[in-house]
Amino acid sequence: xxxxxxxxxxxxxxxxxxxxxxxxxxxxxxxxxxxxxxxxxxxxxxxxxxxxxxxxxxxxxxxxxxxxxxxxxxxxxxxxxxxxxxxxxxxxxxxxxxxxxxxxxxxxxxxxxxxxxxxxxxxxxxxxxxxxxxxxxxxxxxxxxxxxxxxxxxxxxxxxxxxxxxxxxxxxxxxxxxxxxxxxxxxxxxxxxxxxxxxxxxxxxxxxxxxxxxxxxxxxxxxxxxxxxxxxxxxxxxxxxxxxxxxxxxxxxxxxxxxxxxxxxxxxxxxxxxxxxxxxxxxxxxxxxxxxxxxxxxxxxxxxxxxxxxxxxxxxxxxxxxxxxxxxxxxxxxxxxxxxxxxxxxxxxxxxxxxxxxxxxxxxxxxxxx
Amino acid sequence: xxxxxxxxxxxxxxxxxxxxxxxxxxxxxxxxxxxxxxxxxxxxxxxxxxxxxxxxxxxxxxxxxxxxxxxxxxxxxxxxxxxxxxxxxxxxxxxxxxxxxxxxxxxxxxxxxxxxxxxxxxxxxxxxxxxxxxxxxxxxxxxxxxxxxxxxxxxxxxxxxxxxxxxxxxxxxxxxxxxxxxxxxxxxxxxxxxxxxxxxxxxxxxxxxxxxxxxxxxxxxxxxxxxxxxxxxxxxxxxxxxxxxxxxxxxxxxxxxxxxxxxxxxxxxxxxxxxxxxxxxxxxxxxxxxxxxxxxxxxxxxxxxxxxxxxxxxxxxxxxxxxxxxxxxxxxxxxxxxxxxxxxxxxxxxxxxxxxxxxxxxxxxxxxxx
Lengths: 370, 370
Description:
Two copies of one chain form a homodimer.
Chain A: E1 3-12, E2 17-27, E3 34-43, H1 46-52, E4 62-64, E5 67-71, H2 74-79, E6 88-89, E7 94-101, H3 105-108, E8 114-117, E9 126-130, E10 134-136, H4 143-146, H5 151-165, E11 171-173, H6 179-191, E12 195-199, H7 202-211, E13 215-218, H8 224-235, E14 239-242, E15 245-247, H9 249-262, E16 276-280, E17 285-291, E18 299-303, H10 306-313, H11 315-327, E19 339-342, H12 349-355, E20 364-367
Parallel strand pairs in A: 11-12, 11-14, 12-13, 14-16, 15-17, 16-18, 19-20
Antiparallel strand pairs in A: 1-2, 1-6, 2-5, 3-7, 3-9, 3-20, 4-5, 7-8, 8-10
Helix pairs in contact in A: 5-6, 8-9
């Protein structure tokens, strides 16, 4: 038995034309350990936007029924040569109901169940995924509550696991008022882990203080760097996570850590021997990262990505993390959506201009077309 | 019994005045496990220049008998607040003869011996150091042959140890025609380790090919990046060491590694999962490091410094490294000096302008005033 519906794809051609398209599609019956999920809710995460639009000019794009045609800057187009000409589905995660399943018992066991899943193709009427990547939900959990149960929860728990593996004393987090940042803060509060939250407005600072944050620093303040150093003096944290990527956030963190580490120490031309580390896990600013290196030689800046982390962490750790997410889905790991749109809406100009802004405080959930 | 002589110091004042000064000094008799070495030869390494002059304007400095007064840029002066007002001795390493020793048997055993040492105060008539940091030399080794037996040899061996610890397949080395680069090349050739040497002139390329290098790439060539990728295709090396620091060398290495790792692979918006790593171990360019991050999230850039490395490596590894250096001091670890100057000469304008240029191919050795 087949299922008919629609699937959103994004295609970049070698000439820089980016085409988003919502097309009719037929899903075959799943085989083996795979299941077919009728999607009921899928969030738009920053990582989804990187695939959907990257740096395309959505402001001046052509919007028509079920189709967007935009222009990608030449440099970005060239850097993405491997995706030229391929219509790629998108949508990392979501929740829905299993309407068909392969013969494998693991797949059959999910038949008719509501699940959270990570298909990578969630912006569609249906999505196929392996039973191992679909988590059955308790009856009192809605699809909306479970839609964001993978990327942000596992990432924020992954930060804490990484911090422990590094032997660090806590976490400095930039763009900390995001959904992910709020989750990370709740985990740290509940686990007694010191966290310094960097935000960029009074409203964001207030939001985090209401959750219970003690160290909240506004990066738009004139004395931002001095405040950051003071918070590091107090906590001893030499580990940062930065989703901005471009510009000087990682550099600012490292400089503040070094200022704190070398305070009162005799001069050392190589900087302090205290190891200072920043993980870049996003690209809210797609420009280059600047490192002044005014902090000696005991520093490290590296990329951080969920899937390689999970692979390295191993099955037991991942199972423990998944279990905690499911247990605390409506508390620690609750997501808040500012906007709910349909699959059709995803291609409207107003919606694109809003959800592609990646503004902290707005988070979109995609619902099926009726 | 005391010893009289002269000591070179460098002092930076809060107003940006940098003063190098060669002054009379009396050394007390050493106690405990320390020895007093009459210095016979000391190299000028890039790491010494960072302390002696940093970014001071030596071109427009005042040169007088035994004294240089130069101006440091304000930003650098402020960044070095911890050294303001302190006259600091310099000279990481050298060789000489032990003329006095503390009561400790380890110190007494070195009495009258010619030793290689790492006192950090080598630009002086005498230097005090712990017996553990002074290696007795065979009779047929001259002070000049042993003067550079620590910094460059241990650093190049440290790169190989680091490479092995990272599980990498070899080393990409920038500014590879340096004394250090030549040592590293000889180690790699003798140990069968693949190495890609990045140089910036035909002469440098020829020099390394004569030693036996197979992969030598000139960064001033138009097709530098393509050649670098081709060499990585051939060797699979995903680990670089960069003494330049500022600018785009680390970025260029990472981009070439990624181009090689993702060649022929399906498009992945997060980049390849192949871990790519560059260690920055110098600051030939003191400007900021630019990272375009056009290579996904599986990358790492970090500082590398000899002393923290040795501390982490542990005594056994360090003893093995030291043993090899002593065994191969006149072959693998031979240093070549283009210029020999006296302690007095170190303060002459002509000499400063030459040795502070940090030009590959020139290396200065400091000898005692007669």
